[in-house]
Specification:
alpha/beta; TIM Barrel; 56% helix; binds erythose-4-phosphate
Length: 225
């Protein structure tokens, strides 16, 4: 599982980048707009924090294939490094995806809700597809099941496309897509932190500290060797 952070909040990105094994950042127009920031500067700031080797995914706002391609080239030139253009599935998106393949710009096809949307995206040349797990769960449509079907369909056809599941609201959903063999998950900092937490971990560490302190007081290992 490759963990990606789904935010444009610089403080959250700094924390996730320093303390967790994330391999990139995804954004969408809602995520960016929530920050009420200078769009261009925010993308540069995110790239500056995560470096050139981690994925930065930025979503197009254009509705015409040729304009999507222009935006993708301009964004790629702006942020550099490991860049993906996020393109919503649809006729313009699929056409843009086929055009972007020739430009050698990776496409993350987004707003995916069915395995057939995902397969079409893959056939059009998308490198990644983003099914929205919690939005499917909210309408009783089994988000994890859709992810599992996408992973199985990609394996059946040997397509060169990976599933980047999105729209998570809890740890259970992330674990369930991992069990389904999903390749990537994009999640909030809150969920990332929750993945690392367990009350019994805290109890175990408290016990180690208490036992150590009873014998060695406040001495550290480096004090003793
Ligand atoms: C990421 O690619 C998606 O845009 C995002 O995860 C959607 O999440 P939401 O359903 O919480 O808005």
């Amino acid at each position: 599982m490759i963990y990606i952070l789904d935010t444009a909040d610089l403080e959250a990105i700094k924390i996730a980048n320093e303390f967790y094994p994330i391999e990139g950042v995804t954004t969408n127009p809602s995520i960016i707009a929530r920050e009420k920031c200078d769009f261009k500067q925010r993308l540069l700031d995110i790239r500056n924090i995560i470096g050139k080797d981690k994925m930065l995914c930025v979503q197009t706002t254009s509705k015409v294939a040729e304009d999507i391609v222009k935006e993708a080239i301009a964004l790629r030139d702006l942020v550099g490094g490991e860049f993906y253009i996020k393109v919503p599935i649809g006729e313009a998106g699929l056409k843009a995806c086929m055009m972007l393949k020739k430009e050698n710009i990776g496409v993350l096809m987004t707003a995916i809700f069915t395995p057939q949307q995902a397969l079409l995206a893959a056939k059009a040349g998308a490198k990644l597809v983003a099914p929205y797990v919690n939005r499917l769960d909210m309408v009783n449509a089994d988000g994890v099941g859709v992810v599992a079907d996408i992973v199985a369909t990609f394996e059946n056809y040997g397509v060169d496309c990976k599933c980047l599941a999105a729209s998570f609201k809890n740890v259970q959903q992330v674990n369930d897509v991992a069990l389904a063999g999903c390749h990537y998950s994009t999640i909030s900092l809150d969920i990332l932190k929750a993945l690392a937490k367990h009350p019994l971990t805290d109890v175990a560490v408290d016990g180690f500290d208490k036992d150590w302190n009873n014998v060695y007081g406040d001495k550290t290992i480096l004090d003793l060797i």
